[in-house]
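Form 7-S
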Amino acid sequence: MPAFSDNARRDGDGRYRFRRGRSVDPHEDLHPEMGEQAVEVGADVPSTIDELIAMQQGDQNEAHLPSKPEKPERLTAKVRRVLDLIEELETTAAEDQQIALSIVRQLEDYHDDIVAKMQEDTDAKHRQIVAWAVDADRLMQTRFLLASVDLD
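Output:
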């Protein structure tokens, strides 16, 4: 730990950085945005945890919440029919898990098949094969995570 110089103690300049026993301006070598005039904290910044939670829940002021652009719903009639059927059925959490696992497994198999076909194709781009293989791996990891959820 560097020794405080007698001058720094006497002057009470409040500096806390020292180089070779001499006090150094704490703002020296700082990026301009890190200086004292950097950024003022606005009134919209919460000062307590409760204010932050209220802002996140939209209770205090909804203008502070970033608006997400709504994606247009692109459901085919077939998908809408399946989703409606799932909503109608009174399934347990374990049954919902089995349905989700089946869908993820089906997507994973599709990706694996595409990778296998691309590997056989001499015109296939390596980058595309890698992208499909990475997605297949993500689906596999998703399936493992979903299967590991304990519902009992």
